[in-house]
Amino acid sequence: MAKYLSLDWGKKIIGLAIGVLDNKNSPVIIPISPIQNTDLGNTLSQIKGVVLEYNIDSIVVGLPKSGTGEETKTSLVVKRFIVFLKRNLSLPVYAQNEYLTTSDALWHINSNSGNYNKHSISAAIILESFLEK
User: Fold this and answer.
1) Tens of pLDDT, residues 43-65
2) The pTM is what?
3) For residues 130 and 133, what is the distance between their CA atoms, to the nearest angstrom?
4) What is the CATH number of the domain that holds 93?
């Protein structure tokens, strides 16, 4: 069973979620604690730690696009981050459109009255949409 790590890139915080497809091909996803995005070396080290801890097979990174699917300023930064991950990890790295995931995450947090991190909930939503494709 392949294990996935999803990243919701942010300038300061990267939300994380892990997931698999169960035996019925349904996604099972768990948001985990986010990491600090301080510098590329430290961020890569933290991601590698999560990859090893959870025995991750593939990484999915949220790509922020506009409502019409257009590139944004941030999507160009995230694309460079994806290239960096591909060069420094020996895992497949995929991009997944993350349009509206933050607002979906905030709705989820408010409707469930939970003490969740919006970045990691966003990462979970990104991974769910990727696995449902």
Assistant:
1) 999 999 999 999 999 999 999 97
2) 0.85
3) 6
4) 3.30.420.140
Which residue(s) pair with 20 in the sheet?
A: 3, 28
Kindly report which listed range (34-43, 56-65, 83-92, 118-127) carries the lowest average pLDDT score. Answer: 118-127
Q: How many CB atoms lie within 10 A of CB 76?
A: 12
Query: What is the spatial distance between Cα 113 and Cα 97, in angstroms, rounded to a whole number?
Result: 27
The domain of 46 spans: 3-131
Residues of the chain by 3-state class (helix, strand, coil), percent to 5: 45, 30, 30
Our count of domains for the chain comes to 1
Q: How far is CA 4 from CA 38, 69, 78, 88, in A?
A: 23, 24, 18, 17
- What's the rounded Cα separation, in Å, for the pair 34 and 7? 9
pLDDT band at 68, cuts 50/70/90? confident
DSSP 27-94: EEEEEEEEEE---HHHHHHHHHHHHHHHT--EEEEEE-B-TTS-B-HHHHHHHHHHHHHHHH-SS-EE
Work out the pLDDT band at 25, boundaries 50, 70, 90.
confident
